[in-house]
Amino acid sequence: MLPQAPQRRLHFVLQHTAEDIFEPEYATDVPLVRFVAYRGQHRVFGWVRLQADRLTDLLNAHEELALSDVEIEGLDDGATESVDEILIRRSDLIAVHASEPRGDEASRRPTETHPVAMQSGKYLIGGYVHAPPGSDPIASVGNRPLMVPLTDAWIEYWSGGERTGRSSGTIIVNREQVDWMRVVTDRDLAAGLLRPVPIRI
Predict the structure, then answer these.
(1) Residue 152: other Cβ atoms inside 10 A
(2) What would the pLDDT profile of 156-199 be if each residue is shown by its tens digit?
(3) Spatial CB neighbours of 76, under 8 Å, sequence gap ≥ 6
(4) Measured on CA atoms in the order 82, 87, 92, 93, is the torsion positive or negative?
(5) Residue 132 · residue 140 · CB < 8 Å
(6) What does the pLDDT look like over 54-94, one tens digit per residue?
(7) In whole angstroms, what is the distance from residue 14 CA to residue 8 CA?
(8) What's the DSSP call for residue 144?
(9) Taking the CA of residue 4 as centre, how many other CA atoms within 13 Å lie in the half-sphere pointing to its CB?
(10) Residue 139: alpha-carbon gap to chain centroid
(11) N or C: which end of the chain has fewer CB within 10 A?
């Protein structure tokens, strides 16, 4: 039997609220978490149940993300619409924000955390990248798979020099969409001192 080809498409069925419809004899230990996919001019969001697999690993293993029952928000006008289904190429993703399992403690490798900031178009992202001890954190990002997680992170959308939104948690960034990235200080991340630079979009 020939080996099965890897799946190209990752499919999530989202829902618009965090509340479940009650069904007799139905129970689950997998909680609903907020899921947001960021693209150049809009964000796609909803609530989803994430299983034991780490979202970072799932994203790196698939080239397309198929989302059902989602909300789409335009960044320029803030208008929101409901869409039955949308297909997003992983290469077009800027970042994904969702809670995810922390993984198996026994399989983790020792790392050092470094505060970093980066910009992708109108988005400004800050957080902590985990790198092997003694390594250059920026170089380590370039040597990793496409989607890289930042912990204790935040993502902002800037328009007209003003910050219009901020989400925090684990942010998984597409390193190929980053316009610039640099090591910063803990105070830079916590005090909101970072600002985007003008970039032609």
Answers:
(1) 16
(2) 998 777 888 788 889 999 999 999 999 999 999 988 788 888 77
(3) 41, 159
(4) positive
(5) yes
(6) 889 999 999 999 999 999 999 888 889 999 999 999 999 99
(7) 19
(8) S
(9) 3
(10) 20
(11) N
